[in-house]
Batch of 4 targets.
Target 1
Amino acid sequence: MKENFILQKDTIHLEIDKIKFSFFYYPYELLKPLLKLDIIKIASLEDILCMKVLAIIQRGSKKDFVDAYFIMNEIKIKPQQLIEMFSKKYGKINSLIIHKALTFFEDADKELELKMIKKVSWNEIKNFFIENFRKFD
């Protein structure tokens, strides 16, 4: 078993057998209580989705689009519900910013394909966001 870790201010990055984990200090209120899994507590899917959308707004990484895609499909959330959750968590935001970020793929398109447990093509993920966020005003 190969392990690597990096310590930064308020963050720990850990890799075990090619699986990457990050642990953060998080200053924002949670939308839902933490979920307890054995000895660790994790944020709800709703909170993680909002974090992923914020990450997409800030940097547009392919992994964040992939994570947001799977979470949105898992919790069956509609675009307007996502905007409302995001605003509740981070404060009022012009929804156009979210729409533009979730349909801008130029940076993510340059990244390598990701290895995923559930096989979904990058084009399918992009089409999901285009269908859900380009037609919504």
Note: DSSP finds six helices and five strands in the chain.
Target 2
Amino acid sequence: MKQPSSALLCIDLQREYFEAGRPLRVPDGASALANSLKLLEAARKIEIPVVHIRHVSLKPGAVTFAPGSRYLEFADEVSSREGEPIITKTKPGAFYDTDLDVYLRSRNIARLYLCGLLSFMCVDTTAREAHARGYEVVFVSDATAALPIGDLSADVVHQVVCAIQGWMFSTVLRTDDAITLLTGELK
């Protein structure tokens, strides 16, 4: 079976989510970051396009994702390399008011692998937008993570998002299986 042309979207792997003391520090962020790095290395090795997505807040006086803040920078482990585009977004979805769709379609991309943060916010929204635009979406469950919401633990929130994604919008895989598919070995 010939693989569709694929791309990896690294969504909001920014210091805002990983540094101690930040309001949006993700409890399981280190694990999601490590798995995102594995995906990124695999994509680079086989020369699959990689797109880095960065969130910036336009709210005056923003505490998180504030323009000019060092927390907007990507985590060192997953920084972009020359030739890897950076798409800056101001809403949860990476397609909204950006040139992401134009970039992907100009390269005949059909399948998107998604990793990053937060699973229930920007990764979920981007997956839904991609699905609505006709892309095949692979939601890499252990390369994303969540925050707790109200009485729900981060793990429960994440499990619910993955279940909904798998039911309607995406193929949900763990990192190792996603890499196998990415490299064309999964039957």
Note: The longest helix spans residues 29-45.
Target 3
Amino acid sequence: VIKVISGTETLKVLTEEIKVDLIILDYNMPEMNGLECAIEIRKFNKDIPIILSSGSLGINGNTNIKEMGVNSFVNKPYEFDTMLSTIQELL
């Protein structure tokens, strides 16, 4: 598990020689929001699963976020089992 606090840090980690199996992004991050970060990730990595999470967005998995590169959306607050099952589906 690698924890970062911003979209910029996320992009930096992904350009290093570190294997990442899945990314969980919060929508509200410093420097760029989670959706913007997902769009940037997709410019150089089309395959890694991305989960976007937020308690302040009025969106769900049926919105066009999938077209922007997000594989799944989990509303906050979420139950542990909800996030776990979402992760298992994507891996």
Note: Residues 7 and 32 are 6 Å apart (CA to CA).
Target 4
Amino acid sequence: MLVDDSIVARSIFGRVLGSHDEIDIVCEAEDSETALRELETNEVDIILLDIEMPKRSGLEALPDIQARSRGARILVVSSFAEENGPAAIQALSLGACDTLAKPGRSGFSGRFSEILIDKVVRLGRSSRQRSDAAYAVRKAVDCKAIARPSCIAIGSSTGGIPAIYEIIGNLDPSFEGPIFITQHLPEAFMAFFANQLGGLTSRIVKVAEAGEPVRD
């Protein structure tokens, strides 16, 4: 699904992505509200989402689009999404799987097209793998509750940051054991992510280093 207020951008993205045999363009939308309506009747695996659009920006609508899409992977493609820039970081923290800076009109061919196709294909393959494994995961979740764990370990893949924020923000403050979080993120985003978590809890939050011992 292509969500961009520029008909030129949608046309270029459609032409570039449509040239790959693993990619089909299911639907398009010129703004976030139209995207939400399209998702009521269309099932998609990947959404290309612009940031600056009329009515609601892509970042404002991202959580709603993610919920309405029933698990689609969101790739934010915008001229505001410079790698490791504020908008890219915010997009990742809201649940986007990846970001890509949109070039000027003359820069859509060549390297940009190759990167765009590569990102979409990889997200599509990971989406299918996740869908295939979903039933097995549901069947496997059957374990005894631990009355008082000595530590908590959380593993999360791309797009899982909002869930981690919710877990940490609602954690019983009486729990004093260590919490270990593994999260698939660009390295440059790790310190920002740690700071965000630190704002949700009175705990010391830091990015672990190789070989670092665990301390109380």
Note: The mean pLDDT is 85.
